Structures are given as C-alpha cells and as structure tokens.
Amino acid sequence: MTQNFTQYRLDFPFQDYNLRVWPRGYAMDWHSHRFVQIIHVLEGTLEVDIGDGWQGLKRWDVHILMPGTAHRLRSSEGQRQFGLNFAVGEKEHLFLRMFAEHIGKSGTYHFNAGEDWLKQLERITPAHDAFSRAWLRNLLDSYCFRLLDSLREHTVETRLVTSWRERILTLIRQDYSRQWKVDEAAQALKVSRSTLQRICRKVFQTGFRQLEEQIRLDYAAEQLVFRNITVSECAVQCGYPDIYSFSRAFKRLFGVSPNIYRQNHRQMIEQKKEGSQ
Fold first, then answer.
1. What is the per-residue pLDDT for 213?
2. Could you tell me if 217 and 235 are in contact, meaning their C-beta atoms sit under 8 angstroms apart?
3. Number of C-alpha atoms within 13 angstroms, CB side, residue 109?
4. Could you tell me the domains of the chain?
5. Model pTM?
C-alpha cells in the first residue's frame, strides 16, 4: 500500500471524515484528541495502544477513542481505514451521549458496516453539490446508528456473561465438598441441561463438569499449601469419596501428586521469604 489521505469537512455533530491508506510499517507516536474519534479498518491490519499494550485490529474492526485518550498507532503490513471525527465539545449530542453510555471509555469492537455502505461512501464527492452532501450525511447518520446498535448488543451480552459467571461460580463455591451433577446444577440455576452447557462453553470455554472439578481442585491446591491438613482430609473437603480418586484427579490437572505439589509450593514460599530478608 502507498500512503494516501482524503479528508472531508462535515457539519455538526461531525468535524470531518477520511478514507486513508497507510503504507507498510507506518506508525504514529503517542497523541490524544479533544473529540471522539472512530477508526474503522477496511483492509489490512492496525495496532492500537491506549496504555495497556498493543491490540490488533483486522478488517471491519473499529476502535473508538474517547476525548483525551492518549494512544499510539502502527501497521506492520499496511491498512486502509475509514476515520470519523466528531465536533469538539458537543457532549450533549445524541450520538456522543450514546457512545458514552454504551462504552464509557476507549475500546475496540467488531462491526461490519457492509460493502454496499462502503461503495456508496467511496462514490460521494460532498464538495460538489447539495444532494451529495445530504446523501453523505444520511450515510454517516446510518453508520452511527448501526454502530451504536451493535455496541448496545455487545454491552447487553457482556453484562449477561458477567451475570452468569458470578451465578455459576457462586453455586460451585458455596460447598466445595459437593460434586454437582450437570442436571442438579441446571435445576438449581433454573435452566435446562443443554442451556447450562452452552453457557459454560461461552463464558468459561469448557463444559460444566470440567469447570466444576477444576474449581474444587484449585481450592484443594490452596488448602494443601496453606493449611496443615492431610491429603485424605483434603479429599473429603473437596468432594472425593477416597484419597485415590482425589489423587488421580489432582495429578491429571496439576501434573504431580498432592504431596509433591504441597512440598514444591511450600519450598518456593520459603525461598521467597529468605530472599526478601
């Protein structure tokens, strides 16, 4: 890609928009803006850092920068983007209020604006006539409303995931000595078995049975290291009928027996204490 930059001034609540091509290896150092800025990747890849490390964007990923957010940009292979800048200080406009409501801070999302929308945008020359300017405004308004609707769905889904994460973890952690069957857990959470499994795979990337055992074994590992209990006592506290089934499950997850795990971690703790003195 060769560098190319086309920018058009716009009326309230926008400031301007651009269709920009970045060549391979192009970068921009730390800077910030007084306005809301949208960067939408149309081709290639872009990386953005807002202070918490580089985050990669690919085709149809959009980065929304809230006012005052320090950021830097780079593109190792080059990229083509649609950029939209809002007017400075127009915080009360509907679009900006909704962006603040649904994201609150700068972030990256996936939003496919559509090939037809992009083709129409590329055909418009807004400086030429009133009809083109009106059609451009229609395209940009439509873009913002569709983007906001996508962000709203993302917000709802994020809240739903957080809610289910808390509910499932609370259920398992309320009694580590209980081995929950999938049907029993589904009944307690008032969902079907298949729904519970689907939720677990979405939220935790694993099935309920695997999640439930991992949580109990994580608790067992903590007890072994920080409490003076026997392996058999730990097995009972974590819902295993005998020390043999507990040891097999523990080794399957951690790679060593409960006793070896305890010895290794207590030794590491002692070494850290000695090193800090």
1. 96
2. no
3. 24
4. 4-157 (2.60.120.10), 176-277 (1.10.10.60)
5. 0.58
Please report, as a single letter, which amino acid is at residue 29.
D
Calpha distance 17→185 (Å, rounded): 52
pLDDT of residue 154: 75
Whole-number pLDDT of residue 127: 61
Residue ranges in the chain whose pLDDT is less than 50: 2
Question: Nearest Cα to 249, choosing from 240, 259, 260?
Answer: 240
Selection from 84, 95, 73, 96 nearest residue 22 by Cα: 73
Query: Which residue has tokens 């996936």?
Result: 110
- Taking CA atoms, 186 is separated from 167, 171, 180, in Å, by 11, 10, 10
* Closest of 220, 187, 188, 193 to residue 208, by C-alpha: 193
In which residue are the tokens 């496919």 written?
112
Q: Report the pLDDT value the prediction gives residue 122, as an integer from 0 to 100.
A: 87
Is residue 87 a contact partner of residue 12, using CB atoms and an 8 Å limit?
yes
pLDDT number for residue 264: 94
Contacts 24+ apart (CB under 8 A), 117-124: 117/142, 117/143, 118/42, 118/82, 121/19, 121/82, 122/19
Radius of gyration of the chain (CA): 27
**Rounded to an integer, what distance in angstroms lies between the CA atom of residue 166 and that of residue 155?**
17
Compute the half-sphere exposure of residue 117: CA atoms within 13 Å on the CB side of its CA.
17
Class of residue 100 by CB neighbours under 10 A (exposed 0-12, middle 13-18, buried 19+): middle
Q: Using N-to-C axis directions, what is the helix angle for 94-102 and 130-173, rounded to 10°? A: 20
Give buried/exposed letters for 118-153 (b at 16+ CB in 10 A, else e).
beebeeeebeeeeeebebbeebbeebbeebbebbee
